[in-house]
Amino acid sequence: MTTSPVSPEVSKKSVTFVLVHGAFQTGATWDHVATVLRRHGHTVHTPTLAGHGPGEPMNLTHADGVASLVGYLRDHTLDDVVLVGHSIAGSFIAKAAEQLPDRIKRLVFLSSLTVSDGNSLADEFPPETSAAFGMADPTQGILLPFEVIRERACNDMELADAEALYAALTPVPVAFFTDKLDLTTFYQLLGSGQIKTSYVNPVNDIAFPPGEYGWEKRAERLGPLCRILQTQGAHYAMTTQPAELADTLVQAGCD
Questions:
Q1: Distance, CA of 5 to CA of 11 (rounded, Å)
Q2: pTM tops 0.90
Q3: Which of 55, 110, 119, 218 could form a disulfide with 123 if both were Cys (CB 3.0 to 4.6 A apart)?
Q4: How far is CA 47 from CA 54, 108, 114, 154, 208, in A?
C-alpha cells in the first residue's frame, strides 16, 4: 500500500486533534496519520464511534453516534480541540459542536457531508445511492457493495489494496443514514462566528461526484469564511497519503 514520506517540517505550536473516522471504519483508519502528527509534536485522539466495528448493535440512532463522540471529549476533558470528521463524520462533528462549542477550536471537514438542516445523510447522496439506504434491513445494518467503494472511494488504489481495505469494513446502523437531523443550532453557531471551519478536499476524491453533490457545494454551506484546502489522494487519503494529509490537517487547524 502506498504511503508518503514523513514531512521534515514540524509545526511550532502543538495542536490537539480528534480524528473521527467515516462510515464502516474505526479509529484505526487514522493510525498512519496519527503517527505523523505525533512525530510533529501534536496530541492526537482517534476514537471509534458507537455503531462502528465488529459486533456493534445495529439498532442505534444517529444521536447515539453523536453521544459517543461527545462522551469521549468529556471523558478525556479535551479542550481547544481541532475536531476532524471524515465523510459522514461531518454530521457527527457538527452535532457534537452544538453541545460543546466552547471546547472546539475548529471543525475540519475532510471529504465530508455537510448536511442541510432537516435532512438525513441519505438525502445528501445522489438518488441512485440514497435508494440503497431505504432498502437496507435495519437489523443487519448497511455496508455499501465493494464495487461502489472500489470505483468511487478507492479509485487511486491498486485492486489488492482496495480489497484489503474493504475486508476491514463492517456494517453500520441504517439509522445513521436515515435519521433526519436538526442542525439549527449548528448553523446558528456557524453564522455567529462561534465555530470556525475548514474543508479539506483530496483532489482525486470522486466519492461524491462533481456538480450538485460535489465538495464545492458542501464547503459553501460552511459559510464565506470556511478555510478551504486541497491535498493529494482520494476518499481514503489517510491510507494512501498519510504524511501529506497530516500536513494539510495542520494547515486546516492552525490559527
A1: 16
A2: yes
A3: 119
A4: 15, 16, 21, 23, 25
Neighbouring residues of 241: CB distance < 8 A, sequence distance ≥ 6: 2, 3, 4, 202, 231, 232, 233
Residue with the three cell numbers 471543525: 107
Q: Quick one: pLDDT at residue 68?
A: 98
Is residue 254 a contact partner of residue 15, using CB atoms and an 8 Å limit?
A: yes
- Which residues, 6 or more positions from 160, have their beta carbon under 8 angstroms from its beta carbon? none
Give the strands of the sheet with 227-231, arranged side by side.
Answer: 43-45, 16-20, 81-86, 104-110, 197-202, 227-231
Give the pLDDT confidence of 14-56 residue by residue, as tens digits: 999 999 999 999 999 999 999 999 999 999 999 999 999 999 9
State pLDDT tens for residues 73-87: 999 999 999 999 999
Q: State the pLDDT at residue 152.
A: 95
For residues 27 and 21, the answer to whether their CB atoms sit within 8 Å is: yes
* Dist. CA 82–CA 69, nearest whole Å: 13
Give the whole-angstrom CA distance, residue 248 versus residue 18. Answer: 15
- Condensed to tens digits (0 to 9), the pLDDT of residues 229-240 reads 999 999 999 999
